[in-house]
Structures are given as structure tokens and as C-alpha cells.
What does this fold into?
Amino acid sequence: MFKGTPEIVAQRREEIVNACEKLYQTMSFKDIKLKDIGTETSFSRPTIYNYFQTKEEIFLALFEREYIRWNADLESILNSDQRYTRDQLAEQIAKTLEKREQLLKLLSMNTYDMEAESREELLADFKHAYGKSLGLFRAILKKHCPEIAEAELEGIVYVFFPFMFGIYPYSEVTEKQKKAMEAAQVGFRKHTIYEITYNCLIKLLNN
It folds into this structure.
């Protein structure tokens, strides 16, 4: 890791992650190379290795940042003075994920490989952000649905978080996929991230 001031390290890491994020808007994970990321930064590709050793580490940092951004929205729900009904709570959480399409897109990838190719300290930072999401989600349920028993609450958490891995593929379908489903006579109706999330949550909360 580059031994510079914390400010320089943070700025350059942020620039690298921003470059990765920009490319990820139009390219797939497998097609993005470190040299592509290097062309989007103000410094040379070899300099990237001072901050990240693999492409997977850069994507993991992007992933971590997405959880941090989602956590900010979850904290707003938790700290709100308003008490939400179950329906309103499902709406509020669905709105937060509607804003986090990139988080859901990353979740739909093979995260095992991403984590396997990242150093332990970077993986720990990522898990910290992910763990905070779990904690905030639990705290929101406890605050707004205090009548839900602890065991049932844990069940909701560990149904919803794995469920999130499948939201993006059902909300974003390519033309190639549409044609393949038509040829296979598979019925398809596009659902939004909000619709998918809300429908899942309302069923879990009202079970």
C-alpha cells in the first residue's frame, strides 16, 4: 500500500473507484481491465497497484461504497421521528433500494470471486459496511414493528438480504434476453426495483 498522507491515499483511491464506477455503467465486470481503469485516472496504471492489487479489490471498494450510501438512507429511516405502518415501512425501504441500482447490480455478480481476489483487510472493510446494513435493517424493524418477535425478525432479515441478490436481474433485462424468452415462450413483464422490493417486504412484514 502506498505510504502517503491519508488525504492523498483517500483521494487517489476515490479517483480509482470513480473510474471503475464510470466504466461499469457501460461495460461488464469481465470486460473491464486495470488498463481501462487506468485510462480514466489522472495517473498511470502502475500507480493503481499502490492502492489496489487487483481489479476485484477496486470493485469491492465500489461495493463497499454502495453499502455506505445505502446505510445513510437506512439511518434516515431509523432516525425519523415518524412512526411508519408496515405498508409505509415497506415503501420507505423500497425507495432506498430504488436509488441503489448499482448496489443491486453488484449483488447479482459472483461476489465469491471478488472477495477471494481481495486482501483480507479490504474484505474486512467491506464486511463492516455490509454488517452495518444488517444492523440498521434490524433496528428499523425493531423500532417500527416492535410486536415482531426476535426469531421472526431474524427470519425476515435472512430472507430479505439473500433476496436482494436477485432483484437486479428481474428489473433489468437486455434485448437479447427478451428475444430468448420470447423464443422460449416464457412470459415476461418488466417490474421495477421498487415493485419487486415492496412486494417482498410487504409479504414478509405481514406474514
User: Anything to note?
Assistant: The mean pLDDT is 93. The two ends are 49 Å apart (CA to CA).
